[in-house]
Amino acid sequence: MLTFFQTICDNLPDWGPRLLSGAVTTFLLTITGFLVAFAIGLFLEYLRMRSSVLVRRAARAYLAIVRGVPILVILYLLYFVLPQVGVLLSAFNAGVLGLGLVYGAYLAEVFRAGLDALPKGQHEAGLAVGLSPLQAFCLILFPQAVRTTLPPLLITMISMLKDSSVCALIAVPELTLASRAIMSESFLPLHVFVLTGAFYFLIAWPASLFVRALERRFQRPVAARHQRSALKPRLLGRFT
C-alpha cells in the first residue's frame, strides 16, 4: 500500500499539472453547460404553462424524447452528425450543448415542482394588474421558484459535473480524457484513476457542503413559521 501511494507521489509533478488542466476544463464545461441547461429548463417550463395545447404538447414531447435518450447518443449526434448537414461544432461546444440539452429537461421538472408549490393566485394577480404572462412569470413566479429550488438546482449541477466525463468520448480535453492519456503513457491505470477520483472529489465535495448549508438556511424560516403557528393556539387559550 505504501508503495502504491509512493508511486503516485513520485509521478505527481508530471501528472498533477495535466490533471489540473483537465479539471479546469471540466469545471468550465460544467458551469457553461449548466447555464445552458438552466435557460432551456426555464424556457420549457414557461412553454408548459402556456394556454396553447400545441405548445404544451411540443414541450412535453421534447422532455420525453431527451430523457429517454442516453447522453452519449446526444453528444454523438451533435459532434458527428451535425457536420454532415453543415453545422460544425468544436468538441467543447458540442459537450456544452449536449449537457445543456439533456439536463435542461431535468431542470424543467425541478422548476415545475418549485412553481407548483406557489399559490395559484399569484399568477392570476400578476395578470390582473396588467402584466403579460411572460412578465408575470419572470417578475413574480420565477424569483420565488428559484429560491425554493436552489438546493435541487445545485445538486443537479454536481450530477452534471460527474456526467461531464462522458464528453471525453468526443475528445473534450477534460479530466477523464487527461487521465486516459496519462494512463496510456504510464501503464499505471489504477494509480492514475485514484488520483483522478481525488480531483473529482475535491471539486464536488465543497459544492455538496454548500448545498447542505443552503438547505439548512432555507429550512430555518419554514421551521420558525411552523413554530409560531403552533404557539398561537396556546397563547390564545391562555387569554380566553
Q: Can you tell me about this structure?
A:
- The protein is mainly α and about 240 residues long.
- It contains eight helices and no strands.
- Helix 2 (about 55-65) crosses helix 4 (about 90-115), helix 5 (about 120-130) crosses helix 6 and helix 7 runs antiparallel to helix 8.
- The protein is flat.
- The relative contact order is 0.13.
Quick overview:
84% of the residues lie in helices and 0% in strands. The protein is mainly alpha-helical and 240 residues long. The longest helix has 50 residues.
Compressed to H and E, one letter per element, the order equals HHHHHHHH
Given as residue ranges, the uncertain stretches (5+ residues, pLDDT < 50) are: 222-227
Helix content: over 70%
Evaluate the radius of gyration.
23 Å
Categorize the overall geometry. Answer: flat
**What is the makeup of the main sheet?**
none
Distance between the termini: 73 Å
Number of helices, where a helix is a run of at least 4 consecutive DSSP H or I residues? 8
By DSSP, the count of extended strands is 0
Category from helices, strands and their pairing: mainly alpha
The averaged pLDDT comes out at: 83
Percent of residues in beta strands: under 5%
